[in-house]
Amino acid sequence: MRTLFYCLLLATPLWSAEPYFAESFDDTKLNDRGWYDGERYVLGKEPFAGAGCIEFHWRAGDTKPEYSQGARHAIPPTDTVYVRYYQRLSPGWGWTGVNYHPHLMLLMTTENGAWDGPAATHLTTYIEPVNGLLRLAAQDIQNQDAPHGLTQGELRGGYNGTLYDSQEKVFADAKWHLVEAMFRLNTVDAAAGTWQRNGELRAWLDGKLLVERTDAVFRSADFPNMRFNQFLMLPYFGEGLLPHAQTLWIDELAVGPERLGPARHPN
After folding, report:
1. Residue 118 is part of a domain; what is its CATH number?
2. Mean pLDDT of 260-266
3. What is the dihedral of CA 120, 97, 59, 53, to 10 degrees?
């Protein structure tokens, strides 16, 4: 019995990390808890846990949700960041059919301001569902004139980016799913003007690792002091890409320096 106990203990993750912030969306007072750049929030009636979840509803033809608004939250400057949230899509959810939308969760860095738009930056990373896949991505459009140039490939039609997708479609129902992701910036030697291809990214769905890379480049010697310092929750469909009216719910969001693990379900 003692042997079995220790085997189970070793096989069970010990989630002890303290998040930079956690949001259960049990009320609409997000801005009292450090969120900004949003004012209108609506709660869903069937949360994953607790008293509420945030509801984003699009009318047919919209790009931004009718409600709620997206928002941002600062985090301490860090090389490594983990994100956890629960996501549910409305029945009959429709995808765009293109390879670049919708957007959902983003991270920005100390090389941009607290109010800068995320579309053209020195680095924006993404966590999003695209055509049923779980995607991590990165772009650095604003670096096109930097001495060492772009880290995420050449501009294509005014945009650039590196995409890291799950191999299989994983969003195909209207159930709650646990999404976890991490990004770790690559090493830079400012004195030598060099950098390593050792940045890391991972994504899990319901605890299963679906995306993993350990050879990413997110920053060059142009930005040796770059750190993640801003989280954005900005659901958005490009113009003309929303297939029909639909709704997305988010619950039990947390951002921290280590993997945070699942939230406690009331059942």
Report:
1. 2.60.120.200
2. 81
3. -70
